[in-house]
């Protein structure tokens, strides 16, 4: 018989604990499922009009990251179609660092021009993060000098937090209270080489503290890694996103972003601060190296979207989004009002109220998600809203009216 | 001044060591670069005819994982185009577990039918692995009873080995000599709950030891996790791949595979042994949950390819591939001869000879990669070949002739 105590094999849980995560996470998911807000299958007419085939129920998506509505832009759809027809293949199915299509090279050049930085494409933003962060930890990105202490902002996106154990096998991993520059400076004083990992615009609202971070970079050589997925395309004259629009690139800064949110296509991109890193990462960044990259259709969609980012239409869409955000802020003032980002939280306090509000909204034709502890603090439950440029004014006004009347009657 | 010894922050390097990996890896890459075999940009006419625009140099790809040539099948290209035109969007940009397109649901159903198992799609096979393996380690996949010891076959693909540190935060991680059933049985005797992580068909040639593993599963409740990317589509009456074609699914078995290799499209799929895991993984499998899934174009390409897998054409393509493999084996007998898989190694022994052979082959119009230590044992350097169904007989014959004459003259 087996004499081992099974607890012998339990890991150290330094960075994660699935059991504990699931205790919280499953509760949130199953609550959404009970409310009929999970696993909804739809046909697409527009982001304002999704249709459940079986019931005919129609609703507007207020929880999509397609902030500019580019996911259904005819030029982007046609970009994908043209690329498929022109190349006559879905992909070459060989590591891109060996042989790659001129079409993908064109995209690299196009994104390099758009973001004024070497631009490495990837099959998703989180795959780029999974490939790159461990090489920052080991000291192979960000200049010679050995490993770096990796400091993760406590609110940084799951896609970065998920890679902590891999980084932790290369160097010391620490957590930092959200946007806490003093805490971060203390770490910079204590260790010679430090990297800070954060969102540019946070997925639950708000921004990073860019100015203070650049000051720490200047004074301590702090490496800055940003995922700016939630502001890419919607900010900056060419949609560079919040961080890129407000800094000059340098070898101690790296920005990744999703090309499947505001950008309206698929995949992800890493804007590099060091020319040398482009080939180095193509060769060595884990899944970037040996896994599939964005395929031909996605490359074509991205090329079309990049062109659109160079046209006056981008500014017009950004302006439309801004008007929708302003209108919403006027109707529902929150602590994020006026920050220009599309993610908003309508706080109702009580968890059950939040769930019921999201249920009622769905019944009335609007999909948005109830959020509560541990996503937000206890007693701060609410409904998360994501605004879009292609949200029609009528829809937005009647959505706000519906929320208002539901909150009064609650 | 800083008083800390920088070595304080060096990680334990239990599972990885970028410095050591790069010492080997960069040598291989830079050698390939010197030979002009890296970073080649091409236009696509067919897998047999890629063209370097600047020089007009044409060559045949003998290093593509598109084993059936489906990457340029007109029906698959049109599948992608039709999906884009029909849905009018690239994606909804919302977590699929919340709201997803009927098109993606159709693909789930189609793959479920093809593989006779619940089938979870993902943006890539390695993303599925990154999401699922930690939940096997923590004991949340594979039945109640707590964490499992994770045993990685020493030859398992990078995409699985990469996740060791994440698994290691949840449970004990061990390495197993390649296909060593005795070693594995000893671990099964020592610990009550064990999972084994392996390739079905290995990317450097050869197979897993399926029968022996199933025996261990029966006797010890061993969980089996396979990446069968290199045999998917090319084996099995419906292209289920080596493992799925030879076992019945059960809650202690999970198979992942790439849909971007033999399958000819994009993304990846997980064949699940437990119906309950489908929703559970959609909700909780890390990047599967919060990252983008396969987009509309890829979904359309996959749907078309799945249909093709149900037609007689699949058998015809498998047969064509088999004929090419047989011809090659006859011309260049190796230890893998007769195993039916498309990956072959032409061993030349000396590293420089291998590099020069791959250079000369490229000059003669054939791209294949030189492999040497640490990818293969010292003194066993050679050239890796990947055969395809769409490799024209003339090309294959003249390729074999070229290799022969180059080896004689060497």
UniProtKB/TrEMBL annotation, chains A, B:
Domain called Aminotransferase class I/classII large: residue spans: 198-400
Keyword Cell division set for record: no
Pfam families in UniProt: Aminotran_1_2
Matching PANTHER family: 8-AMINO-7-OXONONANOATE SYNTHASE, CLASS II AMINOTRANSFERASE/8-AMINO-7-OXONONANOATE SYNTHASE
Superkingdom field: Bacteria
Taxonomic path: Bacteria, Pseudomonadati, Pseudomonadota, Gammaproteobacteria, Lysobacterales
Cofactor(s) the protein needs: pyridoxal 5'-phosphate
Native source species: Dyella tabacisoli
UniProt entry keywords in alphabetical sequence: Aminotransferase, Pyridoxal phosphate, Transferase
Gene3D superfamilies, A to Z: Aspartate Aminotransferase, domain 1, Type I PLP-dependent aspartate aminotransferase-like (Major domain)
Tagged with keyword Transferase: yes
Protein name as annotated: Aminotransferase class I/II-fold pyridoxal phosphate-dependent enzyme
GO BP terms, alphabetized: biotin biosynthetic process
A GO molecular-function descriptor: transaminase activity
């Amino acid at each position: 018989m087996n004499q081992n105590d099974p607890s012998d094999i339990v890991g150290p849980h330094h960075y994660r604990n699935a059991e504990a995560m699931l205790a919280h996470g499953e509760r949130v998911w199953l609550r959404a499922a009970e409310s009929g807000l999970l696993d909804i299958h739809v046909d697409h007419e527009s982001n304002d009009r999704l249709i459940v085939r079986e019931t005919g129920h129609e609703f507007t998506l207020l929880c999509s990251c397609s902030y500019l509505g580019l996911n259904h832009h005819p030029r982007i759809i046609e970009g994908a179609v043209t690329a498929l027809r022109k190349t006559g293949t879905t992909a070459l199915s060989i590591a891109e660092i060996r042989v790659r299509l001129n079409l993908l090279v064109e995209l690299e050049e196009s994104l390099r021009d758009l973001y004024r930085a070497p631009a490495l494409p990837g099959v998703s933003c989180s795959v780029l993060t999974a490939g790159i962060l461990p090489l920052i930890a080991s000291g192979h990105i960000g200049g010679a000098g050995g490993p770096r202490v990796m400091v993760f902002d406590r609110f940084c996106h799951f896609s970065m937090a998920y890679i902590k154990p891999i980084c932790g096998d290369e160097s010391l991993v620490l957590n930092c209270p959200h946007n806490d520059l003093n805490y971060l400076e203390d770490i910079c004083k204590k260790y010679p080489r430090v990297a800070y990992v954060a969102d540019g615009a946070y997925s639950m609202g708000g921004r990073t503290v860019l100015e203070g971070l650049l000051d720490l970079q200047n004074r301590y050589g702090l490496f800055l890694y940003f995922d700016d997925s939630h502001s890419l395309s919607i900010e900056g004259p060419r949609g560079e996103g919040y961080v890129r629009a407000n800094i000059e690139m340098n070898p101690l800064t790296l920005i990744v972003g999703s090309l499947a949110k505001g950008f309206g296509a698929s995949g992800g991109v890493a804007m590099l601060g060091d020319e040398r890193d482009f080939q180095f990462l193509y060769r060595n960044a884990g899944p970037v190296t040996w896994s599939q990259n964005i395929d031909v259709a996605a490359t074509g969609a991205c090329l079309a979207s990049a062109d659109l980012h160079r046209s006056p239409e981008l500014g017009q869409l950004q302006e439309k989004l801004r008007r929708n955000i302003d209108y919403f802020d006027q109707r529902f003032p929150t602590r994020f009002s006026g920050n220009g980002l599309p993610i908003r939280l309508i706080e109702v306090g009580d968890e059950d109220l939040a769930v019921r509000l999201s249920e009622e909204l769905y019944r009335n034709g609007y999909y948005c998600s109830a959020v509560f502890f541990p996503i937000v603090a206890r007693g701060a439950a609410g409904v998360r809203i994501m605004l879009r440029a292609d949200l029609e004014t009528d829809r937005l006004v009647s959505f706000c009216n519906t929320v208002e009347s539901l909150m009064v009657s609650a």
